[in-house]
Write a structure and sequence with these properties.
single chain; 62 residues; mainly alpha
Length: 62
Amino acid sequence: MTDLQITLQAADAHARKVGHRYLLADEQRALDRGAKLLHTALDTGGNLHGRTAAYDEARRLI
């Protein structure tokens, strides 16, 4: 398991525990977008350039 996968699982578990209702609407959207981007980054079926770009954008958002 990669560091990215471990981090994503930990963040997901924490978010499911505490939720993100307390965040502002813009923050909730950024978090949702970041999660989608991280899933794209982990998709081994995608090309490396797209996966790297998704990861970089997710890091910027989150």
